[in-house]
Design goal:
By secondary structure, the protein is mainly beta. The protein has helices spanning about 80-85, 135; strands at about 65, 70-75, 75-80, 90-95, 100-105, 110-115, 120-125, 140-150, 160-165, 165-170, 170, 185-195, 200-210. The chain is rod-shaped and about 95 Å long.
């Protein structure tokens, strides 16, 4: 009597184990395309040692590969982190700059005040209101920011810089500015390098735009 067809429902889970199957016994032509799904494969069961180098080709991969942090489609890489590296976030504040101003690097790379400044500014560079810059940067990492203030008839400047509320002394291109220029928008750039915990080198510049 011929054997009836054996299907998956006829075999109890765990009955067939890898030790009982020859390496070359199961080939792609013996498996339906829809038979093997991610739900049927344990996370640790597929390793590089079990996959020959030539077995994975572009023809066998979908045209789009997605993970929570990266998408590859047709050779193009899309990633939120990469995009933020090439496009800077700008905050435009229609008020005036004066006194203590917090610069949150987690939400912006450029901060500009468009109304005439009413006093000199102490600029505090931080992660945000709850996260310190010290926790954002590892040692030997750097970040660059731009801060712009608008001056009316009375010129104002960034007179002091802080990091996480602690004063630092920037090294300015051409020397530390002691005065500003009236009726212009002044951009300050600060390149901040973390050399150790809570220890920074800050390089600044001041440029007036009429």
């Amino acid at each position: 009597m011929p054997l009836s067809r054996i299907n998956a429902n006829s075999i109890a889970d765990g009955t067939v184990v890898a030790a009982e199957i020859a390496n070359d016994a199961i080939t792609s032509d013996k498996i339906l395309n829809s038979a093997v799904t991610s739900a049927k494969i344990a996370d640790a069961n597929i390793t590089t040692a079990k996959i020959a180098d030539a077995n994975i080709t572009s023809a066998k991969l979908a045209s789009s590969i997605e993970t929570p942090n990266i998408t590859i489609t047709g050779g193009s890489i899309s990633n939120a982190v990469l995009q933020n590296r090439t496009r800077e976030n700008v905050t435009v504040n229609t008020g005036n700059a004066n006194g203590n101003v917090n610069f949150d690097v987690s939400t912006q790379q450029v901060l500009i005040f468009t109304a005439n400044s009413s006093a000199n500014v102490t600029l505090n560079i931080r992660g945000n209101s709850t996260v310190a810059l010290n926790d954002v940067l590892a040692s030997n990492q750097a970040i660059s920011i731009a801060f712009a203030m608008t001056n009316g008839p009375t010129a104002r400047i960034v007179s002091a810089v802080q990091i996480d509320g602690v004063g630092v002394t920037p090294r300015y291109q051409g020397g530390t500015p002691t005065s500003g220029t009236a009726n212009v928008t002044t951009f300050y750039t600060f390149n901040t390098i973390k050399t150790a915990a809570n220890t920074y080198l800050v390089f600044g510049s001041q440029t007036a735009f009429e």
